[in-house]
Write a structure and sequence with these properties.
The protein is mainly alpha-helical. 75% of the residues lie in helices and 0% in strands. The protein has one domain: LemA-like domain (de novo design (two linked rop proteins)), CATH 1.20.1440.
């Protein structure tokens, strides 16, 4: 009888301490992160097709194209594992190279506006639409990841589940951050000058 009562009390204490919530939210965070990686891979897979199409434009700016190729190489060279989520430095490094690739692709798309023959190329237009769709998917996936990390971190920091977090070493996970917050706050320059 005493063992049964002790077992029941242990189950109630463990159930109310947040242990199962940590397991559920940790898996949810890993799943959301996998979707972010999936969308980044989709974007990286589009880059060679875009580069091949743009290379066909004889007068296209080689410097911009080279930066896209280099950014993709950096982005695909980083090995990402589930442990990346718990390693602040690796997570920041991964974010940085993905940010570089996104910036390089944005510059490529802006510069491509100056080339009528490239804009008229159906293959390039199709790739551009796919890239824009992928960028939207990346944004949605990152937002889901941010929400799942927020839920996990609130659990890790709230009482009494923070005691469970300390006992089982559940530390808050790093959040997705904008690489250059100061630059984001500056409005873009719009130039309606001659083309």
């Amino acid at each position: 009888m005493f063992r049964w009562l002790l077992t029941l009390m242990s189950a109630l204490v463990l159930g109310g301490c947040g242990y199962n919530d940590f397991q559920r939210l940790d898996e949810k965070t890993k799943s959301a992160w996998s979707e972010v990686l999936n969308q980044y891979q989709r974007r990286a897979d589009l880059v060679p097709n875009i580069v091949a199409t743009v290379k066909g434009e004889a007068a296209f700016e080689q410097d911009t194209l080279t930066k896209v190729i280099e950014a993709r190489a950096k982005a695909t060279s980083i090995q990402v594992t589930p442990e990346t989520l718990n390693n602040q430095e690796a997570f920041k490094k991964f974010q940085a190279v993905q940010g570089e690739l996104g910036s390089a692709l944005s510059r490529l798309m802006m510069v491509s506006e100056q080339y009528p023959s490239l804009k008229a190329n159906q293959g390039f237009r199709d790739l551009r639409v796919q890239l824009e769709g992928t960028e939207n998917r990346v944004t949605v996936a990152r937002n889901r990841f941010i929400q799942s990390v927020q839920e996990y971190n609130v659990l890790a920091r709230s009482f009494p589940s923070n005691l469970t977090a300390m006992i089982f070493s559940y530390t808050p996970k790093p959040v997705f951050a904008v690489q250059n917050e100061a630059a984001v706050s500056i409005p873009p320059v719009v130039d309606f000058g001659k083309k």
